[in-house]
């Protein structure tokens, strides 16, 4: 595993959650540094297979030389298409670690962190057209406000959007520190880092269309998982976690429970852990990034 990425949070719990069959077929939709994929391969025999996805070219440098692994350079929203392309109809487990890696936060050129100056980029896929700076300089005030409210849960999203529109009228917003200066009046010193992180999170989600992509992958998981196949998802913020929780519980993203004539819940999945799994104090000490991780495990009915 490439240390420049990160030590995966809840690694053993997520691997246990997959309930790996040695000759099974598994998918790691977030390959990254290869931490989860390496661990999955340890549990497979020569007949087992792992398909891993990543849309970031940097991640392909971590490719594992193993004939049981197929590494796909693509967004996991195309899960079903690429499985069909490789002649795979059904799989026994899907794992998604939805967090942004340390590699992305520590690379100033990628623009994910407000710790360094640089271009406001935030693209997971470097070939994508939309950058964070494009959003800040072209979206309407109303649309900007919606992004910061929905994806950053910022109560003062309207004021932030209004200030951005005024600032860009003088000059385009291109650099991280330029944007940070625009935001500073909104945050007190105690909350500054936390609130700044939420604004950057909102922009990153919009740039990479993360919520829509996650929904598409979850919907496809219903079609490609075998009966008793496992869905293992690690989330890092409440928006993702709420969406996954609703989907596992009700089969839809609104959390609306539907029942048949006999009162049975109509749902493709059953939850394996009714209580969300979080890191213990020891893991957080050794891996501070794991602090916000939440693990949900579901089984295909």
Work out the strand percent. 5-15%
Assign the CATH topology of the largest domain: Rossmann fold
CATH class of the largest domain: Alpha Beta
| Physical arrangement of strands within the biggest beta sheet | 3-2-1-4-5-7-6
Q: Estimate nothing, just give the exact number of structural domains.
A: 2
**Total DSSP helices:** 13
Shape: globular
Protein model, in words:
With 301 residues, the chain is α/β, with parallel strands linked by helices. It has 2 domains: 11-102 and 210-300, Vaccinia Virus protein VP39 (Rossmann fold), CATH 3.40.50.150; 108-208, DNA polymerase, domain 1, CATH 1.10.150.170. The chain is 41% helix and 14% strand. The chain is built from 13 helices and 7 strands. It has helices at residues 11-18, 35-42, 57-60, 79-85, 102-106, 132-138, 141-150, 157-170, 176-183, 192-208, 210-224, 238-250, 281-286; strands at 25-28, 49-54, 69-73, 91-97, 225-235, 269-271, 294-300. A 7-stranded mixed β-sheet has the order 3-2-1-4-5-7-6, with helices on both faces. Helix 7 packs across helix 8 and helix 7 (141-150) crosses helix 10. The longest helix has 17 residues, at 192-208. The chain is globular and about 60 Å long. The chain starts with 10 loop residues before the first helix and ends with a strand. 40% of the residues are buried. The mean pLDDT is 93.
């Amino acid at each position: 595993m490439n240390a420049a990425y990160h030590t995966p949070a809840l690694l053993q719990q997520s691997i246990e959650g997959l309930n790996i069959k040695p000759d099974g077929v598994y998918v790691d939709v977030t390959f990254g540094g290869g931490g989860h994929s390496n661990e999955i391969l340890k549990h497979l025999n020569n007949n087992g297979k792992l398909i891993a996805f990543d849309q970031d070219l940097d991640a392909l440098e971590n490719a594992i030389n193993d004939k049981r692994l197929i590494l796909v350079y693509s967004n996991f929203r195309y899960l079903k298409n690429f499985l069909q392309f490789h002649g795979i109809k059904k799989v026994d487990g899907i794992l998604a670690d939805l967090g942004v890696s340390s590699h992305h936060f520590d690379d100033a050129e990628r623009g994910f962190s407000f710790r360094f100056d640089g271009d406001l980029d935030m693209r997971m896929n470097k070939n994508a057209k939309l950058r964070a700076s494009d959003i800040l300089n072209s979206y309407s005030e109303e649309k900007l406000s919606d992004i910061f409210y929905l994806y950053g849960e910022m109560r003062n999203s309207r004021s932030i959007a209004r200030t951005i529109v005024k600032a860009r009228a003088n000059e385009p917003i291109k650099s991280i520190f330029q944007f940070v200066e625009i935001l500073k009046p909104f945050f007190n010193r105690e909350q500054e880092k936390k609130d700044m992180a939420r604004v950057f999170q909102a922009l990153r989600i919009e740039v990479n269309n993360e919520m829509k992509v996650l929904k598409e992958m979850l919907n496809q998981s219903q079609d490609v998982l075998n009966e008793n196949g496992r869905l293992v998802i690690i989330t890092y913020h409440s928006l993702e976690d709420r969406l996954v929780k609703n989907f596992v519980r009700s089969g839809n993203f609104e959390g609306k429970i539907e029942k048949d004539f006999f009162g049975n819940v109509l749902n493709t999945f059953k939850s394996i852990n009714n209580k969300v799994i979080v890191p213990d104090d020891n893991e957080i000490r050794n891996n501070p990034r794991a602090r916000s991780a939440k693990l949900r495990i579901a089984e295909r009915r």
